[in-house]
Amino acid sequence: xERILTFGAAQEVLKKVASLATQEFSxxxxxxxxxxxxxxxxxxxxxxxxxxxxxxxxxxxxxxxVKKLEDIAHDADDVLDEYGYEVLRRKVELRNQMKKKVLDFxxxxxxxxxxxxxxxxxxxxxxxLEKLNKMAASIGLVARSTLIADPTSSCDxxxxxxxxxxxxxxxxxxxIVGRDEVASEIVTTLINSSNTQExxxxxxxxVGMGGLGKTTLAKKVYHDSEIDRHFNKKIWICVSTNFExxxxxSMILEQLDEKKTGMQGKEAILKxxxxxxxxxxxxxxxxxxxxxxxxxxxxxxxxxxSVNDTQGxxxxxxxxxxxxxxxxxxxxxxxxxxxxxxxxxxxxxxxAFPDGSASLTEDQExxxxxxxxxxxxxxxxxxxxxxMMRCKMGDGWQSILNNQIWGSQEGxxxxxxxxxxSFDELKSASxxxxxxxxxxxxxxxxxxxxxxxxLWMAHGLLQCPxxxxxxxEMEDVGNEYFNVLLENSFFQDVEVSSI
Length: 499
Description:
The protein has 499 residues and is α/β, with parallel strands linked by helices. The chain folds into three domains: 2-138; 179-335, 3-Layer(aba) Sandwich (Rossmann fold); 341-487, no CATH class. 55% of the residues lie in helices and 6% in strands. It has 19 helices and five strands. The chain has helices spanning 2-21, 32-54, 60-95, 111-138, 180-196, 214-222, 225-230, 245-256, 266-277, 294-305, 322-327, 341-352, 362-374, 379-391, 395-401, 411-424, 429-437, 449-458, 474-487; strands spanning 202-207, 233-240, 282-289, 314-319, 332-335. Helix 8 (245-256) runs parallel beside helix 10 and helix 14 runs parallel beside helix 16 (411-424). Mean pLDDT is 75; it is low at 24-29, 101-108 and 145-162.
């Protein structure tokens, strides 16, 4: 993600500088030649940057080159801002009826001194860019041209790993394949263990690598009708990497009674939990647990056990780590397996052909099923590849099949490679920058759609509409960007207001 942000920052500054450098200013006497060299150098440097971005090898030398480029681009930006200010100042001066007839030669606004100063500054920037471009050649970067497509295309795709899960099903999770049997087994185990235990809380863990659908499976269990009939209360908490006992207890209390949000003391929280849970059998889902500190876990269990008269209650956790399952002393553990190729094909088909696949030719279906095999039984990969296939036809599918990432990558490394591939397929640099911007939020951070769009606008990340979309406001462009990212798996666990 740091790599994406580095490219995004460099590209954004270069784009602005290139735009200013192509304008025809009226005060070019003395440095027009240097400004022309700046335009040419920027064009070459941008092409080098594209090659660095698309490079499969991210070395320290490339990283250093990109950061140096960003520094130089900022210097160029400052120089051209200074020039733009001088142009504006002179326009205002010409309109001023009280303007002086003669400028003091030694004034800081003296035109000759200004031109000499500007020529010197731009000359230094050109020298730095030329040196940087020579350095690019020494580390194997070449000038790579590219075409930037319509940023509002609905065929962009991506991911967002860090997110706060919610108990309700989001649109992307409506189509669940191959998990009915395991969900039924988990429901039965939870109910049976609840009926047989005396007083202690029973813990069950669902374990599996990222992308297998642990959270979706937990939601399926959470909303099962048998669970609703058996448990008086259901509580869903997304724990993630920040395992703080008082925070978890406070979140539990907030779900039971939203009026009790923000209570500070652990003693007060436990007293209120006693009031809200006494005499009730509850199911607590702790999703995405990473904590391997047994002291923290024992502290949480001790607090929950202090809430009296909750016999038959259960805790269901999801985690990528077997060590976590051991830490929580899970009475039952379910290792989530991969899907069959045919099941991946169903997920892929649902994403690639939302309007149905009846028009597929025999060759197309054969190729699509071959791509489904590349998913290696991972639902997330099937979703991502299905979205990519929706945007590509014919040779585009063949390029997916022939991609070098299938050579040696396995497990979560393969997932990351596929997700990187989906990011690389984005045709809009502006959309990439909007996605990269989201990485500034900490894991589990919640933000409204309108706030995010306004942040994109404030940072100049939204690309101006194309000529045939000139009637669109920036909010409209931002809304379209958001929808593209949401529809193609950049954003997950979105809560939709019913208002």
